Amino acid sequence: MNTTALKANERELIKLIRFFSKRATLLMETGELSQEHEQLTNACQNLEAQLYKHAENRAAILDKRERLEKVIEDNAQCPKCGKADMLKKNGVATNEHGWKCNTYRCRRCNTTFTWNKPNNPWHMAEFLEMYIQELEQSLHTQPNEELREHTEAAIPQLQDSLYKLRPVLQTSDEEVEALATKEKEMDRMIHQFKNYLMIEKIKLDTYEEPEE
Fold this sequence. Notes:
Blueprint: H1 8-30, H2 35-69, E1 87-94, E2 100-106, E3 111-114, H3 121-138, H4 145-203
Antiparallel strand pairs: 1-2, 2-3
């Protein structure tokens, strides 16, 4: 099984579990495997499977979260030359609304600027809410009928985008929150079981660990 997704404490516990598995194999060969040791070995094997399953689930949730964080693509343009071909992202800034936005440097104009839209879907949802409100308010003051019709057509499209985005973000937030709770439970169980196995290992030190 893949161990790269495991945390340090999980790898340490699995190393102990493998020790007891090897010990069980040795004792079975000599006919000295007690019922207590057999039960411990079964518990270790079940816990190892549980650890790998949790690690795989954690990796999947975090990968999904990371991809969601990167789903927003800026269509940034230099405010000076109006072009995008010579832009280089050089950082992230937080604007007056608390939204994180990408900063760029235009190598043509040698100017640095912060793009006016958020770089992540959570802040983009807040941006859309504010933008929709501004558009709705502008309908009452816009004298140009053509622009007013264009705005009226744009609002439902933006509302639809926001309607589709919100449940995706909520699901992701709930998954991450549930994962954090599960992580605390697993860390507590790993700590307790590791201490128990360390004590059992001391009891079994009369046996030499079989070579690889």
